[in-house]
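Posting this for the archive.
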Amino acid sequence: MKRSGFSRIISFVMAFAVLTCTLFGCGHAAAAKENKEAAGPVDKNVVFHEKPSALDSLFNDVTAQSLGSEGGEIYINTVLAVSGRYYVCYSRMDGEEKTSLLSFDADGNSPVTFDLPLPENGLIAALSVAPDGTIYAASEVMEEESVSWNLTAIDAKGKKVRDQALGGGENFYVQSMVSTERETWLQSDEEVRVIDNAKGTERTVEKPSTDYYGKLCNDSRGDVILVGSTDKGLSAWKYDGKKAAFSEVKIQTDDFWGGEGFSSGSGPYDFYAGKDDGLYGFTLNGSGPVKVLDYLASDLEIGDMQNCALLSAENAVIVSYGSDSGIHAALLQKVDPALVGDRTVLTLATTYASAELRSAIVNYNKSNDKYRVALKEYEYDDAGNSLLNTEIASGNIPDMFCVTPQMPVESYASKGLFEDLEPMFTSDAEISKNKYLGNVLDAFRIDGKMYFVTPSFSVLGLMGKKKDFKDTKGITIDQLDKMIKGKGLSYDTAMGVASKDSILSWNLFCAMDQYVDWDKGTCSFDSDSFIKLLKFAAKFPGEINYDSIDWQKAEAGMRDGTQLVRDSMLYSFDAYTAERYGYVGEEITYMGYPGNGSNGPVIQEEMAIAMSHAARDKEGCWDFLRSLYLDDYQNSIQYSFPVSRKALKARAESAMNPKTYTYTDENGKEVQDSVSNTLFLNGKEIDIPVPKQADIDVVMNILDSLQSKAAVDTNISKIINEEAGAFFAGQKSAETVADVIQSRVQVYISETK
């Protein structure tokens, strides 16, 4: 349950009252002791390791050729675990597209591989395997003017046993399948269809009336169940033969939200579901969830889990995408807890763990035999942040924080919660040899202290045509409004697809420091500048129907002259050329969001990590934090700018000299080419050139000029959004609303400072 803004303020006050005592007085020693006990060792019962298997051949081009393919990109349709074997259905996306099946045993051995004998023009939609090894493949058959569905039965050696047509309406699409000894069950948008394995006869079963997103599974006894996510969390239904219907089963989920990769049960569990931290087992008798596999403890980088299957709670295959967006599939085996080594555990707390953060932790843990970073993630909402504050106040202080907008960072700093990292930074011999963007690092100082490690960043702001804005760094609201009117532009298009709320929110996100001075504990939301911002935002549309927007036309607004400025997120040299030569088509001026005229583009960190002043092992914490500034990590950053000048130079060289690839054209001639970027704007194809040195220089000048960071306090934003609505609705004047906001925010700052 979410708390009101007032109760959030009270919770902060109570938490920090205890926190102040904890950090500066009677509770300091006790806090350190409690923190040490609370961190504890890694749970050795949920540690797995990757095991070599026949699955590895799918990602080896040389071996893949022996499987009847030329190598290339793999798409894995599904993974199943049936009768002691894993079944992996996959397609190669180059050359002649074929769908194949690889099966192997729990040890990754005894592989069997063959192409599925699907109908001509048949595309695999779902697959199941019966206990006797018979394979059932549902495929969508594409004809010139029609679509039909087919079910193919295949024996364990790849020989077709039977083809049968599947009826289906316009909305029919097979989403998931399971097979029992006697029947094969197919779930579609409309219904669940049941087919007799021996006779091929069909019957239908109604789906549960509750809206859900999930799939058919077999429980640990082989019976058919439905598992899915609903608006109430995770739910399960079991087929009741007497009622000939699915009946909901009460399961203990502990508010298990965001489940993914549902898979059939095995061992003591009736089904499994994944979350971003690991795999969990559930039973239909009301117990669970039980974590059976922890990703970080197992040094697994699972950015986006696609499929999983478990022959037992100790043996699994997982298909996932990592932070590099590359697909990865592996056979995993539980490690004997007695063989899991002991290392000093460092806790890192956050209310949101990005794929980049998880990847950094995994890579550090893999390479370090002395320390291990353990992630403690709280819910990204008021309740999660409140729980974190309560634990801090009680002395259960993590060693490190990856801060998020949910956290009252300035207040944390004023209470002495963070350690100043500058002495460690300047005395580190390896760090001191490198050169960094000092202006970016300095932008994250609080009261002059270096509390955060910020290894990568993007640039946020507005861009306009240089012929319109010259070398303007920042622009006032009056100037921007005058230009919109002077050019006769509509507020519906002048700043792109923008609403009253988004104009207000983005201005505050990128220019909050114009209105809040945390050092002095003051704010100025009753100023003429903020009142002008309210009145300016009110000129834009209210509700926007995004489904009705012609995005091709909207994205061409800068080129066709209907748009004056464009939101900018600059995160690479290629992103600049896409804007310069594509969306805008001429020289660009980068500016800050409209304010008092002094604010330029701002820095948005990808992650900012602080060390706790009460950290149990500061040397160990710094060992992890410093790794984010070293070459290995800096060179691995892909979707933002690294702070290392050396890594930036390497990125620039890579952008100017893209990799080439070789292919054979239709005449049998070998051709060498490079990846090209193309934009389609309002029916026009625009080629984006490879960055030249002049483009690199423009971007580097922007990066070197940055001074401010994007800053948002979700509690302040909530207050502003609550009150601004009355002005946008015409119920109160801008001046009255500004006074109310000023009063409420000042109370909040005073009580949390």
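Residues 5-24 form the longest helix (20 residues). Residues 603 and 709 are 4 Å apart (CA to CA).
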